[in-house]
Amino acid sequence: MSELMEHLPLTRLVPAGRHGRIDGPAGVTARLLADTAAATLVARRAGRPEDMLAAQLGLALPPGPKACFKDGLTAIGTGPGRWLVLEDGAAADTLTDRLAATAGDQAAVTEQSDALLVFELSGPSVRQALAKGITVDLDPIAFTPGDAATTSMAFVGLTLWQTDAAPTYRIAVARSFAAAFLRALTAAAAEYGIFLEGTGRG
Fold this sequence. Notes:
The protein is α+β, with helices and mostly antiparallel strands. The protein contains 5 helices and 12 strands. Helix content is 22%, strand content 36%. The strands form 2 sheets. It has a 7-stranded mixed sheet.
């Protein structure tokens, strides 16, 4: 594990495959989602984009740090009047145009697909691995499906949300810091074994 990190360029994502503990099933699986479009939605002064998106798309924009899901769309509250919206399997401009047409003059929409990478994390030891670097209580009593947080890991800012009770988490991180985040995650999960998907061969 230390040899892998020693020879891996700092700007390169940790390569796909099994890392850390090799006996038994991997305790953590992390998958890079390659086809997820992202955009930020920011309400204008006195704007109510929540009403427009609920009426036309059936998507409820959460008023706080929550994630809402509807027909492949995910909206995460990241601050007062601010949301990160993602869509699986969509082109970046398609999502941005759709949100802008729906919100109208109620909000500003900015395309973020090129700026962010989104990872999906699961496995029996995923909570323990994340707890080593994220200062959010992920105990199932405190953090449940639909909960979200804007936090950091290894000084890398990220947005985290839970999608189901398994648990499965998704993490959006700035593309330029994704390599640093993935190094920290791989090191944290090494004792449980981590299997990476979609990050290339290194």
